[in-house]
Amino acid sequence: MKDRNPLVSIIVVTYNSAKYVLETLESAKAQTYPNIELIVSDDGSQDNTIKLCKEWLRQNEKRFIYCELISVEKNTGTPANCNRGVLASSGKWIKIIAGDDILHNDAISSLLNFAIVSKNKFVVSDVTFFNEKGIIEKDINSREIHHFFFKEKVKDKYKSFLRYSVFLLAPTFFYAREVYDKNGGFDEECKLVEDRSFILKTLGNGINIEFLNKKTVKYRVFYSEMSPEKKRLLDNDQIICNNKYVLPVLKKGNIKDSVFFAVIYCLNYAKKRSDGNITFLEKLVSKIYHHIRFFS
Question: Which domain holds residue 261?
Answer without folding.
Answer: 228-294
